[in-house]
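#struct-queue
[09:14] JT: dropping the first one here, sequence first, then the structure tokens:
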Amino acid sequence: MAADVPGGATTGLTRAPRLMPVLAKGVLTGFGKHPRPDAALPRTRLVLPAVRIGLGRAATYARVCGYDATEPLPVTYPHILGFPLAARLMSARDFPLPTLGLVHTGIEITQYAPLHPTDTLELTVFAGALRPHRRGTEVVMTTEARRGGALVWHDRSTYLARHRTAGGSGPSGDSAPDSPRAPGPSGDARDLPVRARWRLPADLGRRHAAVSGDYNPIHLHALTARPLGFPRAIAHGMWTFARCAAEAVLPGTATLRISAEFRSPVLLPATVAYAYETTRNGGTFQLRGTPEERARVHLEGRVETDV
């Protein structure tokens, strides 16, 4: 069963919101918001009842994210389908956090059955909880996918609104865009054995935007990233997660849980190292910079197959 299921009204949609207009609205509605973990959280559930994926869309996404095939559906793709709904909730005036500056800090996906590009899915998205973070306030956004009424896929993503806290951390200093390490249960990262090195081109953000709909200017070009605090464009966090998932999840795995904490952004172009270590019921993985590219940990995660 999914966790954090709220009460409240259910709003049915006939089509997915257009992502960029929704994000633009969020910039406007964010003015004057003062995030805090004890704020009231809207209990609205958005439901999109009949989402058809299609072989073409799935194949293009798989190719950009490094999957060998689209069958079964890449485990990360339903997040892409559900994100416009999550953005609509977060851009609402009664949502307590401003969308401008929200940082995706973590994700946990549970797949209960294989999904396929030909499936018709019902998507439900809601805000599950607010919680304090040492750099501000974090919200848990939940996405559920059902097929024939049965829950087959579940995603909990955390997004951080940075602000000054009682501990003295704030939106400057150690929380500058190129320096944060999002806290997670693993604590300080231990280097894992490197299995592959990938050269990421400068246009990777534009390529992923074309298959995800996320045209945030920080991902597109150095000229559009610099005014927002980045020296160059940065890779989408969901691309880094999807690329690692393409390696970490064995073909034919029917049920699994895969999660990650996003540690630091990947400036494009870059060379990164994928590291992986097998565990009793899955494995742990990292995406790291190479020594020549500042060997920081960009992402750290785990995959479990006994769910």
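[09:21] JT: and here's the second one, same format:
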Amino acid sequence: MTQQERQDAIVALVKRQGYAAIEQLTEHFAVTPQTIRRDLNALANEGLIRRVHGGAGLESSTVNTAYQTRKTLNLEAKRRIASLLAAQIPDHASLFINIGTSNEIVAEALRGHHGLEVITNNLNVAAILQHNEDFNVIIAGGQVRSRDGGIIGEATIDFINQFKVDFGIIGISGIDEDGSLLEFDYQEVRVAQAIIHNSRQVFLIADHSKFHRNAVVRQGKITQIDALFTDRRPPESICRLLENHDVALHIAGQETSAYAPAESTI
């Protein structure tokens, strides 16, 4: 068993049980306690588990990780995914970009484009793109969340519903094994649903830590999007959904998948 296979198995075991002790994991995988501690620390740094004394438990399904922490989680993977996604956006396109640290990195990757019209409910995205003189950046109205610069509420939804754009770029907090897209904030979800409804194509950016991550609010289904951009092959249950519903899969740094004709690599 490779290190990656063992770590994936640890996450699956913790999810089934809710908690796993170092002693149990050492015996189960026939490795040293030091190896298990390194695995748990690495998984906790990726936001996949919660490190507790003597073992590991699940991350909260009701409270998201702090914004400043999320900005640094899987940063290099997010940059690779963002570059891959940005390569799919042509110059002079119109697009929504919603809330999330991954979307902010996408905004940075789009700064080399020309003539984009960007509608966003993310103050950080607007700040990143404001210096591109040939961009038209439009900020949605509504309530500003102090913790991350996200704009939410009924006014935001009404604003989004005035547009029909080429691409909707959305992030997500978790993707369940049945393909449910999960978030923590009901108001944020409603804005994202409006973005999906008003986009001709919907691109979802999600690094590998989002698969099987728990969150309390259902945003929709992965089958509603047109393309998934990630850094590792998703679990098989997700792959089957993508294949059966013609959702393109883009994996940064890997070869093209046979069932995703629109996939590209970087």
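[09:30] RK: nice, looked through the second one.
[09:31] RK: The domain at 73-251 is CATH 3.40.50.1360 (Rossmann fold).
[09:31] JT: good to know. Residues 255-266 have pLDDT under 50 and may be disordered.
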